[in-house]
Specification:
By secondary structure, the chain is mainly α. The chain is built from five helices and no strands. α2 (20-27) packs across α3.
Length: 83
């Protein structure tokens, strides 16, 4: 079997030395959108998820992006419940 390294977008950017601007240009979105994905404020929609997969050579998958977003949202709920 072939095992593929899957990572979140932040790890991808750090590992391969991209800037948010380079990723934004590569997937045809604004830098603010990439920042929102990295902070978990937003989750990319279908076509953007596919472009992210293509841009990263499927090292960042749609499933990983959605999971990352859900994790960040859960962290926000817990943090909000503590205050």
């Amino acid at each position: 079997p072939v095992y593929m390294l899957v990572m979140d977008l932040k790890t991808y950017i750090e590992t391969f030395g991209f800037t948010q601007a380079q990723v934004a240009e590569g997937v045809e979105v604004g830098v603010s959108a990439i920042n929102n994905y990295l902070t978990g404020l937003r989750c990319p929609k279908g076509p953007i998820l596919l472009r992210l997969e293509d841009f990263t050579g499927k090292k960042v998958t749609a499933r990983e992006m959605i999971s990352y977003y859900e994790q960040k949202q859960a962290e926000r709920r817990v943090k909000g419940a503590k205050t």
